[in-house]
Structure formats: structure tokens, C-alpha cells
Amino acid sequence: MQWLACLWFALVAISGPAYASDPEVGPPESALVGRTPDGTSKDKVEVKTPEEKEKQLSDAEKAAEQKRKDKLARVIVLKWQGTDTDYADSDVQRIVKSRIQRPDAGFFPDVDLYQEGRKVKDETVVPAMQPAIVPSQNIDRVMAEVEEVSAVPYNAWAPADWGLKAGQLAEMVELLWFVDRVELREPLFLLYAQIGRAAENQNEVIPPFYEQIGFQAVNYYYYLAAMLAYQDPSLMSKLTDQDLNASIQQYLTMMQQGAFTTMKINFELEGVDFDAEDFATKYEIYLNGLKTEPDDQGEIDIFLGRTDIYLKRVDNGHGLSERLEVSKLEGKRYFVRDVARKKMGLDLIEQLFLHLNECVPQLDSMILNYLAIYAKIHEKAEIYVAVPKEGNANKTSIWRYDRPTASLSKVQGGDDSFPVHFAVQLSGGIAWSSANVATSPPTTSDVAGQAQSGDFSVDPQNFVDIEAIPAFIPLTLELRAHYNRLMLGVGAEAGFNTGGNYNERYILPGDEDAVVYSDGDDSYDNPVYGDTFSVSDQETAKGEKPPTWGQATHSDSVNRDLYVTGGVVLGRDAGFGIGPRIALRVGWTNMPYALNTTAHFGWNFEIPMKKQLPRVRPYVDIDGRVGAIWPFRPSLAWEIAQDPKANPVPVSPIVGITAGIGTTL
């Protein structure tokens, strides 16, 4: 195994000093880049403090964690009315993870599925085509139109023309149909301002450009612009038209003075007291693109009109969205999450269980739109909907969202589904327990020649030759059980000795210290069990024996290893046993009489083929092992190790690799 020797010496050569050439003097060429002839730096070099480096590393770790979470399966658990079983129930999570074979699945409440705000108003848009998020090109279209209209003097068009333009601009509001981020606020603010200006120039006080808010008639779009400016007064500086600025400032001042009535939006769930600290660990509230904090009762005061409500999940992903447009609910409360629960909890459950045995349930267009939007804003995740019937985790029905068809498909299994998956595997390979090392140091003439030439570089292959000695060829049959990530297994392994036969004592039941003697027949087919004496007392014989008899040993070229194993499987298909794994194995061998302990790293690769049965997946397996064989009393290996003259090492290290085929069951 010359390549092993080369690798070992290469590592030594890299870590040690080099003598083949003289070291360079002076700074490397890269150090002179950006310097003047006198050695001073042209550019200021940024030196980061330990705190800045730690923050940079922390940000990178957070980004990597977010990327991992984006790929997880997201399971929306619909809460059955009148029960307490919800997405946080450990039994529901355990059962669903096993059924969908996604050990890393994340679980979320039913209200997160409610996406009324992100749904476009155009009813002709099918669920699969819902955009979900306002694209950046819509911002460009709005800003271009705003710039064009703002340059037109009020007297350049007739009032009727201004009325037509007001209608056209009002339709463009739907290009910014849901404000979930701050970049959308300024374009919408400027668009509202120009719609209000066009409505004012048409000289007619008619809806929808003028509305009754509370007890006051207002230019509705001036009012909406003032609402945005109330949250962020800096928006007023974007209005360069002094008359337009003054018109909207009038409404803003009235809001600041409390002239307009308000209403409350409440984030409490019916029957559950609002916990501000717990809520803050799950969600952030965004109103019209700006983060807003609720009070201790989970309430926020808002003005009548349009308010875009978005719950952003703190851990990862997105929660509900609502575009609330009201003009006559002053002094009342709107329960945001309760409305969402009724729509996505009660109504969706009713439709799912209307024809429970159907693989693809018939859902109304509203719910299909919400599902499509939720899937689009979590584009890297698989979306599932789970319902524990009557609050019983063992009666959980599961549906998977299919993106191409924009529909739910029922996941096979149900009340009688067995959550454990099995796998059977046959594999073979090779294992090593020692190596021969041959050395050939340089001769006197070699050294003299090097001194004369001045070349003291060495070739490691000239001095060391390492050759691994195959201990045995393992042939293994293994049965595994997989439950989520957990893997347990039992197996039997036959090890074929490549260097001859194993030799071991005969072990007598009930008297492991006994020594079996034979009459000298090399075959040892008929050992005499009656003539024995204790190993612990070599001088005292329990019975007379002929002087020609010697100790009988069992000789065989095959070693039997019966073992148990346990470990974890990683990856999305871990519940099936497909993917990388780490395991520990403990076995009992008969040749020698020993304990065999090994650590394993393996990988199952599913064979791509059409699945005839849902639980059957053929695979190819690669496995590496490292460990030790521990002989114990009364093995011959253990007995020899007790001899102080021999002073052998009783523990044998072992490494090996196997490949095999198997199938899940």
C-alpha cells in the first residue's frame, strides 16, 4: 500500500520545515499591492474589531440557519373546534413527522394560512397564478405614472378629463395591492396624493373619491395619504407641490389632533388570554409595511380606511395577511386572528371532511387562493395540512399541497397507519485489523551522494512501505427499524478469515473456566468433555487424563458476529432510512470469544424506480466502520494476554468498509 505511505509522509512534509530551497526574503508580492514607493499604504486598510468579526460570523450563521429552515416541510395544523389539540401538541408532531417522513418538519397554526391581504382583487386570476408579493416592476410603473401626472397643471385638462384620470389612477392602486414592506409605502403615498388631486380637479364630490369617514366627508385619497404620513411624517417631504402638500397636511393635522375617530384591531384568540411575551416570540406585526407593537391586551388603534396587516413569523416564514378596509366601525374591535381561524380552521375543516375518502378534496376558490399564496411565499418548502379529528392525535388526517395543480392531495395512511418503517439489507466488504510496515533507511553511499550534490530532498516511498493486512471479509444480513430519525437494528455477520483459521477454546455451558482435552486427534471432532480441570488452578486436575492428551481448540475460517445497532439518520427521508446515518454497533463473536464494538458512518441511496408499494424503496448502501475487538475470559486471546512474558495487546483495532443492497418495508 505505497499510496498510504505517500499520504503519511506528505502530511509530515507539509507540517514540517522545508529544506529543499532557501526561504524568501522580504514581504510577499501581494503585500506591496496598493503601496507607494516609500512603502506607505495608498488605501486605508479596514481592521475589524473582535466584536465586529463576531457579529459578521453570527450574521453568516443566521443566514445559513435561515436557508436551512426555508427548505423544511411546513405543516399547518387545523384545530378542531372545542378541543385543545393544536400545532404545538407533541403527539401530533410525532405522528405527522413519521407519516410524511420529514423529521425536521415545522408546525404552524391554522391562522397562518389566511392570506386575504395578499390575494389580488381580480377574480379571474386562478390560484396557481396568484402573485402573492408585489413585484418591483409594479413600483416602477406606479412611479412613472405619478411623475407624468404630477407634471400636468390643474388647468391643462378639463374637469371631465381629470375625472377619467382619477379613475385610471385608482385602478393602479391594485398594482400595490398589499403593503408588506417599507419600499411600497412611498409609491403608494404618492399615488394616493395624485388620485386625490385628480378627484379634486374634477370638481365633483362623488364616490369613490369622496367618502364618509365617521361623521365627516373627506377626499378619500388625501385621507389615505395622510394615514400613511401619520405613521411616518417624513413622507410629506416627498410632495414638492405646495398646494398638494397643504391639502394632505390638513388631514394629517386633524388626525394628530384626534379629529378622526379610530377603531381597535385585536390579536387575541377567542378563549385564550393574550400573552404579549409569548406572542412576541412568534410574530412581528406590520401595519402598512411598518413594524408596530401591540399593547398588553394585544390591541392597536388604527384609523378607518385601508390598513394592510401582516404577521411576520419570528422564527422563519410568514404568517397571516389581511387588507382591512372599513369606514363605519369606529369604536369597535376587529379580531384579526379570530377571523383568520374561522376561515382557515372551521371552514377548511368542513370542506376537507365533507368527502373524507376522496384523495383530492373539493375546496372553494377562496381557500385554494390562500393555499397557493402560502405556498408561493414559502417557495422552497413542502406544504402540508393536518387535522387531528376531534382533537385525537391518533386520528390525524394529512394532506399535501401540490403546486402544479394548486390542490391538496391526501397522504396515505390514517388511523391504522403503522409509524415504524423497516429495512432489510445484505452487504459485504473488507476489514483490516493491522498493517505491515517495512523500512529501508538510506545507505552511506546515498548520504554521500546527497552531500556531494547538495540535494537533501527525500522521496518517502524509498524508505517506508505500509501494507494493510485484511483481517476478514464480512458478509452481513441486517434488519432495521426506523422511526423518524431513530434507527434500531439487529444483524448477523459472517467474517471469512483471509489469513487462515481462527482458533478458540471450547466453551462449556455452566463451567466457562473448564478446559477440554482431546486424545491428540487433529480433527477434534470428538472432544472428551469429562477430563477437564480449572484454568484458575493449573496444578489441580479434576480427573485423570492420559499424558498424550492436549487442550482441544475449535478451529474455523468463519467468525460469527451477532449484534445490535442503534443510531440516527439524517436528511428529508430519514423516516424511511434513506440518507446519511451515524450509528454504534455492539456484537458478540465466537471466534474469538469477544465483544466487537464499532462506530459506523453510512449512506443509503434510493434506487430511482417506479414505486409499486408506498412503503417499499430499494436502495444501495455504503458503510464505513472503525472500532475494536475486546476478547474476554475465557477466550484464548484473553488468557494469552495475561502472560507477563508475552505482554501482548489483547484489544484489536479494526477498520472496514462495506457495500450492499436493501429495501425498506
Class of the largest domain, according to the CATH hierarchy?
Mainly Beta
Structural class: alpha+beta
How many strands?
26
Indicate the overall shape: elongated
What proportion of the residues is helical, as a percent range? 25-40%
Unreliable runs: 1-45, 519-549
Mean pLDDT reading:
80
Q: With helices defined by DSSP (H or I, 4 residues minimum), what is the helix count?
A: 13
Name of the CATH architecture of the largest domain? Beta Barrel
Quick rundown:
This protein is α+β, with helices and mostly antiparallel strands.
Mind explaining what this structure looks like?
The structure is a single chain. The chain has three domains: 85-94 and 102-114 and 344-376 and 383-417, no CATH class; 133-309 and 321-329, no CATH class; 423-506 and 552-664, Porin (Beta Barrel), CATH 2.40.160. The longest helix is centred in the N-terminal third of the chain and has 21 residues, at 50-70. It is elongated, with a radius of gyration of 39 Å. The strands form seven sheets. The chain has an eight-stranded antiparallel barrel. Strands 2-1-12-13-14 form a five-stranded mixed β-sheet, with helices on both faces. Strands 7-6-9-10 form a four-stranded antiparallel β-sheet. The two termini are 41 Å apart. A hairpin with a 2-residue loop joins strand 23 (579-590) and strand 24. It is built from 13 helices and 26 strands. With 665 residues, it is an alpha+beta fold.
